[in-house]
Amino acid sequence: MRIAVLGLGSVGYGLLSSIVDKHPNLTITGVADSKSAGINPDGIDITSLLAQKKETGICGDPSLTARDVVTHAPYDLLVEVTPTDAGTGEPAYGYIKEALSRGAHVVTSNKGPVALYYNELHELAQKNNVSFRYEATVAGAIPILHVMQHDLLGNTITALYGVLNGTCNYILTRMAEEGLTYTQALAEARELGYAEADPTYDVKGIDAGIKLVILANTIFQKNITLNDVSITGIDLLTDDALRLAEHQDCTIRLIGEIVPGTDLFRISPRIIPKNHPLVVKGTLNAITISTDMAGDLTFIGKGAGSIETASAILGDILYISQGKCMD
Fold first, then answer.
1. Do the beta carbons of residue 270 and residue 255 sit within 8 Å?
2. What is the pLDDT of residues 63-82, one digit of tens each?
3. pLDDT at 326 exceeding the cut of 50
4. Exactly one of 204, 211, 222, 302 is catalytic; which is it?
5. Which band of pLDDT confidence, cut at 50, 70 and 90, is reported for residue 324?
6. How far apart are CA 142 and CA 163, in angstroms?
7. Which numeric CATH code is attached to 146-302?
């Protein structure tokens, strides 16, 4: 299978490194970063490309762009891992739409286009008899979308709730266990690289809200936007609230919740018992799915990280390459 990759930050770099180590049979015919691109119909030497990227900061010819790869490279599958724009979904939305329109499969980790244009992109994929997969947009390495779309088909899902943002979970863990203030815990998260310089999307619950939109629209066939999600972040959480929870042998976690058949789509800090399955520590994510036949199933794993996200992307690539799906 011929693959083109857009985006060579930590996730794209981790993905290509994993392909070199584990799946050298996959042929990469196009690659683009923010400053350059490379196209080779016979296959790009990925080891040399990664060395060049590490040494020079670019992956190819500065006169070429991601758009050139999308429109001119020969590929059967496009991997889109550029930075997310939650407001417009661009430029990723345009790249994905172009690839699907020309009859190529698409795998992405980009939350913006999936949250904003899922129905359109899904229908375009079906029209052109190709796959559009996005496991890496929700909960990192946890294969939550695959589980619900395939493994739980015989079940009725009655509720879904979970910890969907590792940055917030880290901050709340440190506040509860070490008595740090919100400001101290956020500074520590920044220092360790768990929080961005501007952590607004994380701490105000927006990132978790976007993931909830993706789950609602793709698993429960809703047609909601971020405006339909009730969102309360952790940025106004006080030390007193955590101490109050502690007195009840509880703690606080930022929980996303969907109840099918209702209009309940919520992200909010919740007081939950310390022995609850969703009380995970550090940057872990955790999701519980309530079903009529299998009961409650809880999935725990790393919700972010270059290799963890690459794991989800690679899983989607191999699922398509083995001819197992066309959805």
1. yes
2. 999 999 999 999 999 999 99
3. no
4. 211
5. low
6. 12
7. 3.30.360.10
pLDDT of the residue at 197: 86
d(CA 132, CA 111): 13
Based on the residue annotation, tell me whether 302 is a catalytic residue of this protein. Answer: no
Token couple for 98: 């172009």
pTM of the model: 0.92
Question: 3-class SS at 247?
Answer: helix
- Per residue in 259-304, pLDDT tens? 988 889 999 999 999 999 999 999 999 999 999 999 999 999 998 8
Q: What stretch(es) of the chain map to CATH 3.30.360.10?
A: 146-302
DSSP 67-106: HHHHHHS--SEEEE-PPP-TTT-TTHHHHHHHHHHTT-EE
The SS3 assignment for 187 reads helix
Nearest Cα to Cα of residue 303 among 133, 138, 114: 138
309: left (phi over 0), alpha (psi -120 to 50) or beta: alpha
Task: For the beta carbon of residue 315, count every other beta carbon within 10 angstroms.
Answer: 17
Tokens of 74: 């020969």
Beta carbons of 59 and 81 less than 8 angstroms apart: no
- Helix (H), strand (E) at residue 96: helix 92-101
For CATH 3.40.50.720, the residue range(s) in the chain are 2-140+306-321
User: Residue range 105-115: average pLDDT?
Assistant: 96
Is domain 2-140+306-321 given the CATH code 3.40.50.720 in the classification?
Answer: yes
Q: How far, in Å, CA of 250 to CA of 275, rounded?
A: 8
- Rounded CA-CA distance 234/84 in Å is 22
Give the other-Cβ count within 10 Å of 5's Cβ.
32
Do the strands 296-302 and 284-291 form a parallel or antiparallel pair, or are they unpaired?
antiparallel
Rounded to the nearest 10°, the torsion over CA 98, 104, 110, 111 is: 90
